[in-house]
Amino acid sequence: MEKYYADQHLHTSFSGDSDTPPEKQIERALSLGMSEMCFTDHHDYDMKSDVDFNLDFDAYIPEMQRLKDKYSRVIDISTGVELGLQLHIADYLDKLTEKYSYLDFIIGSNHVIDGIDPYFPVFFESNGSDSYERFFKVTLERIKRIKCYDSLGHLDYIVRYGKQHGLTYSYAEYADYIDEILRQLVTDGKALECNSGAFSRGMDEPNPCTDILKRFRELGGELVTLGSDAHSPETLGDRFPECGEILKSCGFKYYAVYKKRKPQMRAL
Prior knowledge:
- By secondary structure, this protein is of the alpha/beta class.
- It has helices spanning 22-31, 57-70, 90-99, 121-127, 131-145, 175-188, 210-218, 240-249; strands at 7-10, 36-43, 76-84, 105-109, 151-152, 191-195, 224-227, 254-259, 262-267.
- The strands form two sheets. The chain has a seven-stranded parallel sheet with strand order 1-2-3-4-5-6-7. The protein has a two-stranded antiparallel ribbon with strand order 8-9.
């Protein structure tokens, strides 16, 4: 069996865009031989959408604890959340993470730019050739202010929905912004996520791309997390062995698994 690393980015029916029961994700992880996993359901507060991306923490956390106890002999289950970062809710996010300080892991992601998710073509219609630049600029502004997360999720999320699913995009075009983002992560002691969800969305590299992962290491980045962004069992752990090889080729020897908001290093 190929080596399967711990999946640190998973969604279930607690997320507005998934109908997968949590136990189905656990069963899939066990079938792959994983010994650890972390649920990170969506909480995108004040996101204008037909889908409700507000996480019901009062139901979510007790259920995660129940599953952790039930499966404790066969897999180590952690409880996390994927927070949607926006500057105007920075204070709200600070208070939220203080309230739920016992969470294991927090992903900080940028799903909304100027009120629009790049998932929708209208974002590209509104911003034209400046769409990618706008995304990276806003990301940088946010992480300069918001610090209540552990790993920056899918740094180049936008390329999933850009022209030809990012196949015409290169790190070099936006290096000025991306390098500043990476330097900020290093300064703040934050991790950078290697998100394999890009593969199931038609891309030939993870999010972010290999060049960005390599640049993060060159700039002194040591903390990387692995996540599939799976909303259904069939993509859980997708292409993890390949992602492990990519990370090693970029100079990483370890990836991070978070427990009570502290990184624990695991060999690649």
